[in-house]
From TrEMBL, chains A, B:
Residues 31-378 form the Luciferase-like domain. Keywords: Flavoprotein, FMN, Monooxygenase, Oxidoreductase. InterPro entries: Diverse_substr_monoxygenases (IPR051260), Luciferase-like_dom (IPR011251), Luciferase-like_sf (IPR036661), NTA_MOA (IPR016215). GO terms for molecular function: monooxygenase activity; oxidoreductase activity, acting on paired donors, with incorporation or reduction of molecular oxygen. SUPFAM superfamilies: Bacterial luciferase-like. FMN binds at residues 55, 92, 142, 146, 217. This is FMN-dependent oxidoreductase (Nitrilotriacetate monooxygenase family). It comes from Ancylobacter tetraedralis. Belongs to the NtaA/SnaA/DszA monooxygenase family. NCBIfam families: FMN_nitrolo (TIGR03860).
Length: 443, 443
């Protein structure tokens, strides 16, 4: 097979399962650097494209225990850049509660420190509670958040272009430190931000860090189609994933990009046993330790409605869209309807995978499933979540990855050194170099 | 001698001298990770208390070539935390153009990643140009900047106290992840910020990262007296430094703190030769490569006035205070007056040391000078700047530090593991633990 799949690992604090941290072999992940180094190095040994750290700028007190406490993602990426040499390093940063100059600068810095391995998952922030941490009355509405995000990413790109390649001359003889003709002043004035520039760091090795996105609403998809290079999908059903991927490819095309300019990466949570039985026992063991209140909070958070208001043993009710997290809500309601789940069953399903697709079986079965989704075009790759750390993450690398390599579906070694190269994404040329014309240059 | 001095290294991009980067043995420092790792590891081998990275959130185009381009400091500290194990890691972050939640979080993260080695140099931002990068009409006035800074640091401390020691229980048997009684909600509402909390990371290993400050105006000194644990001074004359240090100790006392709760660290820029002659030749070599325009821009920046308006070969004019960088302005005008310098002489003086005190001589002479200042009480320690990197920084560690150790003025090995321990500063107890009373606890 010509095309090979992309694989990343989603590292969610203590694991994706609400009770994952209680497993006998579980270690606390969120503030445990040696553990994170161990798992990330394992992912690198498996030649995975990237590791990804989700984030929120509030304490998810009411939700997942593994998401309450964690390292700040930008400093974490910088630290992990020193403990690895090839794997991509991706983190979420919201565009709602920070300044584009600061974030563009931090990502440029991480891209330099890691020699071209940074990725930015652009989110607009799914928790309205964050507003109270940032001197705001309220979380901006969905539509406005995306308008801000669009402007924000455009500014970041403009700032990353501040110094064209070759701008830093450093000619000791002639005493020329920089070439001012290669310095570009952004001078952005827009509805939400005014940012002059230039940025005080040279262009990132990748041109721009890779832009990830996970929006699932129509507005989110428009943004992704125009801007994102990797999109996280949370589809649970293959034909829905295919429809989603094609819709996204259409949007990319409509925005003047190639259909394959966006890689669709589906989140999956594999639970692997030596036999299917054993895998099911692991799920049962996790379920037995589950705090059902916490699980209901996770589900309520994903659906954007307090689900305690509904009867547990009746079918999942129809819900109006909430303006938050529409993606997960659509996917979870869809699988509940298709599989005729009760609310209790959906709660337990979502508890294992944090709302992502659950795969329970042998390594061979997991590999079969990923192959099937990949060949169908429903996914360009997968983002693997682990119920807890480090065991399940290591097991995926040890048992599933070699099967995918054997089948010619995944690389046996890195062929490039940057995240863009792993993902088969082009390095964006500097606009001035690309057009050959001179941009607005400061005097 | 009982009391020993504190030593840190100031790493200013390509070096403190405007022409430092042109020296034959100079390497570009600002975006050169291997070079920074080498110098920081050397400082650690010399058992220095800390390395410090200055910062600004704009491109100092008109000023120092070595300050134009640099790593973003928080990501840089996180990376260097992985390359070192004992030395303190300090960076400047302005309180004018960022959100306290984000910065408190990043510093907590660095303190965890480095196991208690983070320090924050709180500045209000000395360049008015930064405003244009942050959707602002203008740089807030001096007084308001300090009012913001005070509120900002108080919020950061409140956020660092979100989780009292022992809050993260992680009892797998009982299924208790956190102890809610040890979680504290800040609920800050003030003139500049409203920040609810709690922070989504546990209390930093040091309680709070060490608070550095470098303000020199009366307003800056009030802030430092009440809040700072280390103060950078730029005094050029010993009796002025002593007066400054005593004034600061008075202010600390007035704020209800111990006189020695604040360590005064004087910035010095040593140029070391095997003989005094050789040291002077190095200064002359640097001067010969100096871009006099750039040097005048550095001086203008330090003085807060465009000095090109004044005659070069006449005495330095009297200038009204500018609202920017009053500290450097006062010190430089003071030494100019005392040494009866012309504007040209002051320009060349400031060019070598970036406005800090210049020491030209043998390692023995440099050690003598530092000993003298230290014994007089004018300084609790010194922050060493190098004209360029890595030679002069390494020479200081190899030649001056052993002399200070021999004289009993500096440690021969680390006795503690955190920056607080190196500096002899107490670890702030959690307010709830300190008073024994229960704080405002979220329901
Ligand atoms: C794999 C995956 C990872 C996500 N990571 C984050 C995250 O780290 N932080 C966040 O606020 N939202 C995250 N989301 C949520 C999305 O950003 C988005 O808010 C959600 O999918 C709803 O889409 P919409 O905003 O277009 O309605 C993630 C979603 C998926 C599928
Ligand atoms: C050693 C030293 C380091 C400094 N580092 C910075 C810095 O990194 N960023 C900055 O904006 N100002 C820096 N300053 C300037 C001070 O923060 C402060 O603005 C200046 O001393 C003027 O004092 P004032 O603000 O009280 O008028 C530094 C000053 C000294 C002496």
């Amino acid at each position: 097979m010509d095309r090979t799949m992309h694989l990343g690992m989603i590292l969610l604090g203590a694991g994706s399962h609400v009770a994952g941290w209680r497993m006998p072999d579980a270690q606390f992940g969120s503030q445990n650097l040696p553990l994170l180094q161990r798992v990330v190095q394992k992912a690198e040994a498996g030649k995975l494209d990237f590791v990804f750290f989700a984030d929120a700028v509030n304490t998810g007190l009411d939700a997942h225990p593994g998401m309450m406490l964690r390292f700040e993602p930008l400093t974490l990426l910088a630290a992990l850049a020193m403990s690895t040499s090839r794997i991509g390093l991706v983190a979420t940063v919201s565009t709602t509660y920070s300044e584009p100059y600061n974030i563009a600068r931090a990502f440029a810095s991480i891209d330099h420190l890691s020699q071209g391995r940074a990725g930015w998952n652009v989110v607009t922030g799914s928790s309205p509670d964050a507003a109270a941490n940032f001197s705001r009355d309220k979380h901006p509405p969905h539509e406005e958040r995306y308008a801000i995000a669009e402007e924000y990413v455009a500014i970041a790109k403009g700032l990353w272009d501040s110094w064209q390649e070759g701008a830093l001359v450093g000619d000791k003889e002639k005493g020329v430190f920089v070439d001012p003709a290669k310095m570009h002043v952004l001078d952005h004035v827009g509805p939400h931000f005014s940012v002059k520039g230039p940025l005080n760091i040279t262009r990132p090795p990748q041109g721009y860090p890779v832009i990830f996105q996970a929006g699932a609403s129509d507005r989110g998809l428009d943004f992704a189609g125009a801007t994102a290079e990797v999109v996280f999908a949370a589809q649970q059903i293959q034909e829905e994933a295919l429809a989603f991927a094609n819709k996204l490819r259409d949007k990319a095309e409509a925005a003047g990009r190639a259909r394959d300019a966006v890689k669709v990466v589906c989140g999956v949570s594999p639970v692997i046993g030596r036999t299917e039985e054993e895998a099911k026992e692991i799920v049962a063991e996790l379920a037995s330790m589950m705090d059902t209140q916490a699980a209901m909070r996770v589900l309520s958070d994903r659906l954007g409605h307090d689900m305690n208001a509904f009867p547990l043993d009746e079918p999942v009710p129809d819900l109006p869209p909430s303006g938050m997290m529409q993606g997960h809500a659509i996917q979870l309601t869809s699988i509940a309807r298709r599989k005729k789940m009760t609310l209790r069953q959906l709660r337990d399903y979502a508890a294992v995978s944090s709302g992502h697709r659950l795969l329970v079986g042998t390594a061979e079965q997991v590999a079969d499933d990923l192959e099937d989704w990949f060949r169908s075009g429903a996914a360009d790759g997968f983002a693997i979540m682990s119920t807890h750390l480090p065991g399940p993450a290591e097991r995926f690398v040890d048992e599933v990855v070699p099967r995918l390599v054997e089948r010619g579906l995944f690389r046996s070694d890195y062929t490039g050194s940057t995240l863009r190269e792993h993902l088969g994404l082009p390095r964006p040329a500097h606009p001035a170099a690309a057009t050959g014309r001179t941009m607005h240059i400061s005097g």
